């Protein structure tokens, strides 16, 4: 890769990540504190918790932000550890909406979205309009960044060394590790999946290689909540343990599914002409299947989190026992 192409790649990546952050901030601002309070009030039973987690995360476009909110709710006592389990499961489903949007090939609309967003942010004073402007501008900049990255990486299509390196992701361990590390570094599974979609659309990574990277991306996104839990209560830290357990167990289930069944072939049949949609569908199926598989074991996962991260002092153990007895 030439220096000019490398610099173009960095520019595209910067715009992509900035657009993702701008869109997320606009959505979070639009959601406001009322939505946060509503989550804490409505998060009750299993089905309701998963539904709320899915819908709210689909709106704010960030499972990391949703999980950080849940950590805060548990830390403040507004939500129990058991309630947090269902919200986390739903958040993992809701975050897949971003990938589905990217797969719709809205690149031609990117300049219009960015221009409309800037007009709303600069010239309209109403907070709601400014939030909408941030959303539009963010999505537009994100799509422009993807287009620039795709162009910058075109020369790599003819690089045998790069293409051979990409095939190493067919090894489940290497694929999961790569997805985990990269997503942990950029702290966004949606952004990481979007970049993988760009690689797939450019023909630089096959579906059989990408499927394990997607598994790792779901694990890597746990890092944001883990960082947010530093200095919080023990139960808040346990929330992040549940998040990690969910994605690690889901990865094990999914790898077994891919190895033992023609899963990738079936996914390819759903959208044979759209590699980006194939990646988005894998991301969605991973989280839906994992949620359905672990739904009956939600409370047990909370108990596992307590065993993995036990109370330090006898007083805390007594308090935890009292909380359990009240349930």
Mean pLDDT over the residues: 83
Count of helical stretches:
17
DSSP strand content? under 5%
* Estimated helix fraction: over 70%
* Terminal Cα span: 60 Å
- Compressed to H and E, one letter per element, the order equals HHHHHHHHHHHHHHHHH
> What is the domain tally?
1
Q: Please outline the major beta sheet.
A: none
Radius of gyration: 20 Å
Structural class by helix and strand composition? mainly alpha
The backbone outline, from C-alpha atoms, is globular
Strand tally, please? Answer: 0
Low-confidence stretches: none
Polypeptide structure, described:
By secondary structure, this protein is mostly helical. It has helices spanning 3-42, 46-60, 63-76, 81-94, 97-102, 110-123, 127-152, 160-167, 172-186, 189-201, 207-220, 222-228, 234-260, 263-270, 275-294, 298-308, 314-326. The N and C termini lie far apart (60 Å). 47% of the residues are buried.
